Amino acid sequence: MSRLPVMSNKRVLMSSSSSENSQDLAPLQKKSRKDSDPPPKPQAAATVIMSKRPIATARPNVSKPIRRTGAATVATGPSRAGVLKPAMSTAAKSANVKPTTGAKVGGGTKRAPWDLKGKVCDMEEKIQNYQTRVKSVNQENEVLKGSMVQTRQRASEMEKELEKQRGQISAFQKQLEELSGVQEELEKVSMEKDTLQKSLCNLEGKYKIMETLRDSQEVELQTLKMKLSVQESSLARLQQTLRETEEEVQSLKETVSQQKDELYSGEMERRKLHNAIQELKGNIRVFCRVRPLVDGGLSKHIHLASDDKTSISLAKTEESHTGKGTDTQKNYNFSFDRVFGPQASQQDVFEEISLLVQSALDGYNVCCFAYGQTGSGKTYTMEGDEVHESRGVIPRAVQQIFKASDKLSSQGWEFTFTASFVEIYNETLRDLLYKGKADKRPEHEIRKSTNNELTVTNLTYQKVACEDQVLGLIALANQNRSTAQTAQNDRSSRSHSVFKLDIEGVNVGRDVKCKSALCLVDLAGSERMVKSQSQGDRFKEMTAINSSLSNLGIVITALANKESYVPYRNSKLTYLLQNCLGGNSKTLMFVNIAPEPDSFGETLNSLRFASKVNDCVIGTASANRK
Ligand code: ADP
Ligand code: MG
Q1: Is the pTM of this model over 0.70?
Q2: Which segments within 336-412 are labelled E, that is strand?
């Protein structure tokens, strides 16, 4: 103890150059120089605590936990270790200095070897220092223990937390895995969403278009509704009108059927009256027609009364046989139903016979002859020329019949017309409508059926419906005649030609039928031959003509006298015309006259024949109705 140097305050201050030392020395300085030194900082303890650790390690009595804590502290606080370094060195210094401190103090502030008291003082200070340090180290130890417990607690908490976190992490990982699946799904879904969005966009576009469309259609609908309502009202109006019209139509139909009945009975009445008139006019009528001279005009020997259209007279001047007296003039007067002069047109002539043609359509048989010498105008009267105005009786008659049948069709009548054209030459029948080869001409016979109908075998029966067809048939007939003409001179004048139109009418609604025939006959020339001139074929022809014409006269006379026997079969002509002559028919005879003076004799003969026929009264005709 005596060796311990006594340190003065001054020296301590001088020797502690470092701040740590000055801090370590602070309590001592406090004690010694309270007024001059600043009070020690509270951190000083902590600083001291730090620097104590190496000291603690150096001490064997320091408990293990403390050391460990120190190590832990050192380990956990590298910065603190750095801080501790100087402290350690100070501690080491102060630990190791014991023997050297004196030397060191002595080196800088070395107490004089005599200053034992000072040295003791120093030592005491040091001890005090150490004690303070121990105390603070203990305190620190306590604190560290507490903090260690806390730290352990915290560690276990942390571990728990860690476990929890791990659990959470694995849960999160699971979730993550799930989420990655979900993400794929999400991607898919998002792709789908994109697609859907695109289609949505499309649809929206379409929707907009549709909306526009809808708007326009709504407008249209509105317009249509308006139109509909207008049309509905007009429909209702029309329906009302229709109902009224239907009622009207119904009543009109009734009226029509009533009027049809009336018309039918009126038509029947007309026929009856028409027939009565014809009968009053005579069922056989004779018209005389005088042909004009070639240069027009008329011969002096023929006289036609200007005011009377029914008489004709021929005048013949005869020279006095004695030669002394004046020439005597002999007049031959004839009267007929009608006499046509040279100026009479085809139309004038036809007008007179058109009533008979109407009778043919009404169901009566009608026969029209042209009688006269060759060149008197028979063919002109019956057929006429091709010039329209010069058309003869045949084309005009068929025209009238077709027109009248058209009118009757509105009353339910349906007509069919069949034409035939026959030539009778030398008591032989020849088909004038034949179209085949000349060398294959068939022969014809007149046949009578059980129902008294006459037909000609192998004859052409041609259905006709218009005038042109009939004109065509007339042309064909003329062609057929002219071929025969070249073979035999003037044949046509020596043959009869018979145009026949068979008329059949049906009124289906009233179940009425009618059948009749219209015969238009161009007779052979009536001229008589001087017997001496007639030889061979010519004589034969003349005989045939004479016999047939005279037989026609006989038949008509027999009919007029209502004789029981009528010699129809005596000639082909009367046999063929059997049904058109007699009680059931109307007959018209044209007597054609040539005006030339040299035809006087023939003219007289013709007029005599005709007037004989004209005197006949044929029995009352009755219509062929079934
Ligand atoms: P038929 O047949 O009697 O032998 P046609 O009819 O051939 O006589 O007449 C002889 C000629 O006289 C013909 O050229 C004809 O054109 C003409 N003819 C006959 N009648 C008349 C008449 N009414 N008006 C004018 N010409 C007529
Ligand atoms: Mg003729």
Answers
A1: no
A2: 338-340, 365-372
Query: Residue 283 phi/psi, 5° resolution?
Result: -75, -15
Pocket probe for ligand 1: among 287, 290, 291, the residue whose CB has the most ligand atoms within 8 Å is 291
Residues shown for the chain = 626
For residue 344, which atom of ligand 1 is closest to its CA?
23
**Strands in 397-542 per DSSP E:** 413-425, 428-431, 446-448, 454-456, 462-464, 496-507, 512-522
Q: From ligand 1's centre to the CA of 9, what distance in Å?
A: 199
- Closest ligand to C-alpha of residue 377 is 1
| Ligand nearest the Cα atom of residue 496 | 2
d(CA 106, CA 14): 12
The protein residues having their C-beta less than 5 angstroms from ligand 2 (an ion) are 378-379
CB 607 within 8 A of CB 593: yes
pLDDT band at 322 (very low <50, low <70, confident <90, very high): low
Contact 401, 362 (CB under 8 A): no
Task: Give the other-Cβ count within 10 Å of 21's Cβ.
Answer: 17
The pLDDT tens digits of the residues spanning 82-108 come to 334 444 444 444 444 444 444 444 445
d(CA 55, CA 282): 188
